[in-house]
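Give me the fold.
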Amino acid sequence: MKVRRWAAAGLGTAILAALACSSPTADVTATELRAVIEAEAIVFENPTVPGPVIGRLAENRVILLGETHHLREHWELVATLMSDLYNDGFRQLLIEAPHMAGWLLDAYVQGSQLVPDWTAPPFYEQRLSMVRDFNLTRAAGDPIHVHGIDANEDWYGGASDFHQLLGWFVETLPTHGPTDPLLDMAYGDAEPDQQRGAVEDLLESLRADQPGLVATWGADRYQQLVDLLTNELVSIDVRAARADDDDKGARMREDLIKSLADDRIAECECGTVINIGGHHAQKAHLMGTDQQWLGDYLTHSSDIAAGSIIVIGFSSAKTELEPGADGTAWDVLDSKSPDNELLRLMAETMPDRTAFLPLDDPIFAERTIAYNSEDVVYISPLKRQFDAIIQYGVAHRMPVN
C-alpha cells in the first residue's frame, strides 16, 4: 500500500538560511520583548479560548491560522474556535486537504460516514471529529461546512485517489450520467495527457447535457461534479510540473489554493476560518520560497478578503510525539533560540501555558524580532508576516494515519 502523508509536502526548495544563533542580529532586546509579552499576552484557561481573543477574531471576515502540522491541541483549538465563533456568523472552515475530498469531508462533519475502504479516514476523523460533534448539536440546515482547498497532489493519492473519490461521488447521484467512460478507465495509471483528455471529454459531455443533468441531479450536485473535474485539470498540471520542476509545481499549487480560497470566501456570506501550514499563511516572504503565499494574497491582493482578515502564526514551546508519529520532540528552551527570541521568551514568561500575543506594539512593525521556527531562526519585523502569535505550552504530534 502506498504511504500517504495527507499533509503539506516539503518545501522543495532551500528555506532561508538561519542566522547564526551565537550572534543574533534582532534589534529588540530580551528586556523590551519580555515587557511587551507580560503586558499584552492573553493566557488560555484550557480548554476555553479567552473572550478577548474571540472578540478580536470575530471582527474579521477571514481568520487565517498558520499551523505546524499534526498537533492534537491545534485541531482541538480549531474546533473550539469554530464553535465559539458560531454565534458571530462563522460557518466555514477551509483546510489544507485535497479538493477531491472536500465533498466527502463536508458530508462527514454534517453526520455522514467517511468511506471505510479509503486510506485517509483516520487522519480526518482525528482532526475533524470535534467539528462534526458540534454540528450534530446544531439545528438542521445551519451547519459549519468544511472544504479542502489544496491540489490533488501525489502525497494525497493523486490520480488514483481522485478516480476512487469521483466514483464514490457519482454513486451518490441518481444516475451515472456520462461519467462511465472515465470511471471505467485505469485513470491512475494513465499518462497526464490521457487523464487530461478524459476529464475534458467528461466536462464537455456534462455541459452539452446541462439542462437534463441539472433536472436529474439538482443544480448543486451538478456544479459539485463540474468543480471536481475542473480542479482535477489544474491538479494534473501541478503533478506533471512537479516531475520536472518542483518549484514551478509548488507555485502552480499555491495559485490553485489562492483561487479556491477566494471562491469559497466569496460564495459564503459568512465568516471563514482557514487552517493551513504556517508557510502558506504568512503575509509576506519570510519562510520558504519567494512565491506569493496565500496569506500574502488574501491580505494584500484579494478583493474578497483584503481589509477584513487576521493572520495568526502558531508554534509550540514543547512538542511531544504520540506513538507512531513522525518527527522529533521539540523544546524551544533547549533549542538554538537566542536569548532575545520571541518564542523562547513567551515560553519562559508563561511556562507550559498556551497564550495569544497580538503583534500590535510598534516594535513588531518597526524593529526586527528573532523568531525560531524549530531551529531556523528568522530575523524580521514580524508584523509583516503575522498579526498575532499563538504558542501552545505543550503540544502532541499525532501519527499521520
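Confidence is low (pLDDT under 50) at residues 1-23.
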